Structure formats: structure tokens, C-alpha cells
Amino acid sequence: MRSRRPCTPRRSASCATRRPSPLASDALSALRASLGERLRTGAGAAPPPPALLDVVVQRFEVGRGGDVVLVLPADWEQLRHEEGAAGAPVPYWARPWPSGLALARALAADPPASGIRVLELGCGLGAPSIVAARAGARVLATDGHPDAVVFAAHALALNAVVADVAEVDWGAHGEALAALGPFDLVLAADVLYTEANVRAALALWPRLVAPGGELRLADPRRAGARDVLAAARATFALESEDRDAAVVLHRLRPHACAAP
Fold first, then answer.
1. Which residue in 49, 85, 129, 254 could disulfide with 141, CB within 3.0 to 4.6 Å?
2. Cα–Cα dist 230/224, whole Å
């Protein structure tokens, strides 16, 4: 796990229909300034590319409980170009992917109980965590990319909800999360896109979910998800629901005899 405060979550006071930005121009300028102060602040870190600070704020309709407000780069293709020129990975975290929005809508329709412990893996821009926090859950939103954690923290604040955020690559540093668990609810949206993540999920996910808890996975029908779900039947009871043509929502609950 890479973190400015290792293993310590940071508290943030903190496809779908898009709505115009809810921020006035001066508020948007303040938001960009805040991002600029918090992105890539480590010693020797390269400054953020211009496209990472050229952001917009958009509302996304998720159903019951109101819209969610997300902060995202105005031109993702330009950001990808600038990151690629600097030798950085493709910033997949910086887009509101259908699986994340589908999971947010599912949580709005069937929200977690107030006060339960919720962990989101690979939170990206943070839509599912926002909905869970709005319901009163105690949320820890995690992502392996430090920029994603900063954007998610700002989105939580704009939605006037409180949650913890932490920079954790769950596929590589699952032990750090297991040490914080188990959790009543684990959230994951489109995270099984590599063989390494599939292997990590098989080893880690049963340890993250508390007895009586559940894991909600939104997935765009990836082969990796089929492999994980087939193996997970030994540990979890599985329910699957087509949310739309592109995304399936899976709910995994530990068998009564399964240990976390």
C-alpha cells in the first residue's frame, strides 16, 4: 500500500444521466486550486498534467436519495495523452464507468443500514461510496491511484457526506485491508480486468466480508468475473441481476459455516 499516511485512512468531510455542473465559476476555480494543492505533493513528484486540473463537476442521476456530484477531468482523452507522454499509466480511474454508476444506483435503491462498516475497492471517482455514506454507513473508499483518492475525497465533500479515504492497491496490498476488516459490506465495480486482480480476489475477498455481511460486485460481463464467481460459490451464496445490457450486479453472502 502506498499512502502519505500508511495504513491510515484520511477522513473527508466530505451509461447514467448527466446534469450540468452545480458550481459557479468562482467555486470551480477554488476546487481546481484545492486539487492543485493536494495532487502529487510527495517529495520529487512530478507536477500534475494540465488536463488533470482542467476539471468539471457533473451531477449523475442515481435514483432514490438524489443525484451524486462527481469531479472529473473535462477531457479524459487529453489526460490520457498527457499521462502517456509522461510514461504514466492510463488513468482509467478518472472516468465515470457504467459499472460504478450501476452500483451507485443499486445502492440508492437498496441502501446499506446506517452505521455499518463499508469498504469500496477501486473507488475511482467515488460514486458508490457517496451513496453508501449518504445512507449513514461508515465508509472507507480506497483506490490504488493517489489521484483517484484526492478526487474521491473532493467529491465526498461536494456531496456533503463524511467518509474515510485511503490509497490502497487492494490487488497488491490486500493484507492491509484485511487487517482493518472484516466489513459488513464490500463494494467493487469493474475491478476484475486483470488476471492478477482475479487471483487477488479469490484469496482476499472471503477475508474482507464479515459473517452476515455481503459483497456487491458490479461487472460488465468480464471473463475474470466469471472465474471469480465460479470459485466463490464454495464460500458465498450468490445472487446475480442484470442491471442493463452492459452490467450485471452480483451479491455475495458468506455461507453460515464460512470463516472471514
1. 129
2. 10
